[in-house]
Every structure is written in C-alpha cells, then in structure tokens.
Amino acid sequence: MRRLWWVMVVFLIPGSGCGPHFAAGTLDHEVVRRGARIAVMPLENLSGRENAAEKLTEYLVMALGNVKGVELSELGRTYEQMRHYRVRSSTFLTGDQIDSLARSLNVEYIVTGTVLDYSETDNMYLGKIPQVSVNLRLIKCATRKTVWTGASNARGDQSELLFGVGAVRSREELAKAIIDSAVKQLADLVVE
Question: What pTM was computed for the model?
C-alpha cells in the first residue's frame, strides 16, 4: 500500500499543474510602459466554426481589461476605425494601416491573432474533448514591428490526471484558460 501511495505522488502530483499553456516569446526585450494604450483587433477565424473568433476576441478584451497599467481602446471604436480605413484582415496589417489605426485610436500597441481550431473530438473514455488553437501577436505601432508572439494548441484532456479527473470538458472553458495564460504573459511586460 505504501508503494502505491508513492507511485501516486511521483506520477500524479507533478502533472496536476499541467493544463492549457501559451508558449510565447518577446522580441528585443520589449517592455510596455504603465499607462500604454492597446487596441485589440478582432481575431481572424480559420477554425471553420462560426463565432469562434468573436468569442475568443471577447475573452481577450475582458482579460486584458483587467491588467493593471494598460488602457484598452474600446472594441466598438476599433471596429469602426477598421471599417473607415478598409482594414479587411487584422492579421495582415500594412504599415499604413498600423499608422492610421494607431493615430485614430490613440494607441501604442495593437494585439491581433488567429483562431486556428475550435473543435471537439470524440474520446472513447471521456466523450467529447475540446481542442482550441490560437496564436497572438503584439505590434508596437511606432516601429510597426511585432514585439511579442505566442501560440497555444490545447486539448481538454491535457490536464487529465486519472479517469477524467482534471479534464476540461468545454471549448469555452479551454479557450478562456488559453487566453488567461496569454494575458498573464502580456501583463508581465508591463513596467513602470
């Protein structure tokens, strides 16, 4: 019995912290000064699922809105300016579009990205398993350069411990966990 207990400690406890992880990198040791204004562009939807990008964009705006030290441009105003400047794709912004949006929205940074997957797969033991894939990038408007990038390809069963315990059962819950992980890393860039 004691041996079984040690097996559980060695194999289950280290895995208990596993879950959706957002792998990210900062370019040129960029920092975001406290008080910086950021615009969140609507994410591109390449998942084939209707409204997937809208949901994740909403989660991103809500999570970034809670970061101390940054101000967000209102999403409705961002949409308005995208229409005004005929920005069709938030992923493939031209330098002129970045300049126009930065000036009209009065922002120093733009967050944009893509929803690549927002699906469910069947698992013989767990039933439906959500899968969400997202990539994001932070663009510094003054230089037009990407200064932070991140990506996540998460499945609901990644944090499963044993017999379904710890598994994420819904796409929405998994998507929120991914976005929270990304925003935590972005928040670490904010300095005085």
Answer: 0.80
HEC secondary structure over the chain: CHHHHHHHHHHCCHHHHCCCCCEEEECCCCCEECCEEEEECCCEECCCCCCHHHHHHHHHHHHHHCCCCEEECCHHHHHHHHHHCCCCCCCCCCHHHHHHHHHHHCCCEEEEEEEEEEEEEEECCCEEEEEEEEEEEEEECCCCEEEEEEEEEEECCCCCCCCCCCCCCCHHHHHHHHHHHHHHHHHCCEEC
CATH number at residue 70: 3.40.50.10610
Residue 2 in domain: no
Q: Which domain holds residue 131?
A: 19-191
The answer to whether position 133 is within a domain reads yes
> Does the residue 6 lie in any domain?
no
pLDDT in tens, 126-170: 667 788 889 999 999 999 999 999 898 876 655 554 444 455 667
